[in-house]
Records
---
Amino acid sequence: MIVYRTKNDLSLHLDAIRKSGKSIGLVPTMGALHKGHTSLVEKAAGENGALVVTIFVNPTQFNDPADLEAYPRNLDKDLEILQSMKVDIVFVPSVKEMYPEEDKRSFDLGNLDKVMEGKHRKDHFNGVAQIVSKLFETVKPDRAYFGQKDFQQLIIVRHLVDLLNLDITIVACPIIREVDGLAMSSRNIMLNTEDRNLAPFIHITLQLAREKRGFLAPAEVKSWVISQFENQPRMKLEYFEIVEDKALQHVNDWGEKVNKVGCIAVQLGGVRLIDNLFFD
Ligand code: PAJ
């Protein structure tokens, strides 16, 4: 396994790989790797001649400096995991390497960053678009792998590929969960024991909400979810929305011929958790 720290060294190696006719897969991460991440790595390894995993905690997507500071980092353990998976190339740039100067680009994400996460985390998705576009430009992958756990991010990355007219296939990967249903996240280790035991409530509520679609309208399901969290004093529901999976417009009627996704964000003991579930 080769660990690159600079874009230049990485590009030189990738040029040689490309010349040899191998396809290149990219898995961007912010590290603190768990089985959600490794599921992407496994899929990408199986579908490409060469694989690049990136580890970079991207400052421009954190709207809260305290959140950036507290974000879990464990590079040695991450590299051990990737080595054991026989990953050939890892890219671990510094902030200076990715942002030699301030990135002033502002991406037109239309409605996609006005709702849900975008509404609650100002400029978050512009920061994601900045770093993802830089990684795409450096790695020039044939395929890039993103988890459905961050559903809105996945849709925005697809939009970015269209916007920048890139020839990259975005591969969506299913959500990996703990045995009790909690979606795996690097942030889960920040939960104390009590909160960790409460956290599966989020997924359970999504599942129950989906079952209600037989007899409640979408707006009524939303009210029901809100009421469930009112009975959970330690959890603060930031939003629950049922949206379609292309433009993230609200679903008003179950009869609409679109794929419907229930998306949720909850604050639990100072940790922000997101999850989603297809409602079809
Ligand atoms: P990070 O949160 O580290 O996630 C990296 C990738 O792993 C994302 O595509 C995310 O959706 C996926 N992932 C995380 N948890 C998952 C789970 N439980 N099941 C399946 N996939 C999961 O998302 C980011 O980093 C950053 O925003 C990034 C795209 C790297 C840009 O900085």
---
Amino acid sequence: MDLRPDLCYIYSMNHLVSIKDLSLDLIDDIYKLTAQLKANPLEKHLPGKTIAMIFEKPSNRTRVSFEVGMFQLGGHAVSLSEDAIQMGKRESIADVARTLSRYVDGIVIRTFAQEKVEQLAQHATVPVINALSDHTHPCQALADVYTIIEKRDNIKGLKLVFMGDGNNVARSLNELCKKTGIHFVLCCPKGYEMEDCEISYKPEEAVRGADVIYTDVWTSMGQEKESKKRLKDFAKFQVNEKLVSIARANCNSPVPVPLVMHCLPAHRNEEITDGVIESQNSIVFDQAENRLHVQKAVMVKLMGAR
Ligand code: CP
Ligand code: NVA
């Protein structure tokens, strides 16, 4: 398997903790298999295999797509709520990892701290897949770039403007854009930047020439107490009809430009207007669907050869 050599000694297994774990070759293999599974959704690549899914935050897309995906692949998914497993409280993360590894072939985890995902990965002897932490959301990014590839054959040099918080979704997307040659720009209010990317504080300037405009909620899960301040801070960063028309004015493509993306769930008329999310530029439900196909390919690549 093509883990980055510098990560191989950290983990004894092949995990998807962050996009940084994936080589370009492996991403390419995942995408080839994604296309195959999208065309043939009932191919049984994981008969008799089981995953445990630990969700310490709410989820619609991630949870359902992993469970349905595993079923379609011929395997089974066991759902564990935070209350049921109480990782780190009822027993240590290491002991949860070691015990689950004796029962299942993979562990999917959605939690708050990235360190919790990392600890689970360090102690598990089966692959661990990060289904979102406060820091990263690699499965989302993999589905997003796959969706862009479906819409635009050649993605090298495309300009993607992420309008919003320099948070988990933006971070993983930036990491994958870097690997795949997409020009990523984060446009956010001061104080919401993230590392390793081009930053703009001016929405109307940032979207000029954008092929893709992406947004996410201004208040992520776990940040609810900051919601009032965030609403105010992000008010000028809404993806609305005016912003989309500025980007479009500078592109001359026969297909809708810019593509408008959102990981969902959306807070309509906060970070994105109803009109834009329902417009022909919007590909948000294609993204949501591709979570299923891409994650199936990830599971087969990580768990299939064992
Ligand atoms: N985009 C995403 O991860 O959606 P859920 O939170 O519903 O899983
Ligand atoms: N940034 C959002 C993404 C939800 C899929 C959150 O963490 O709540």
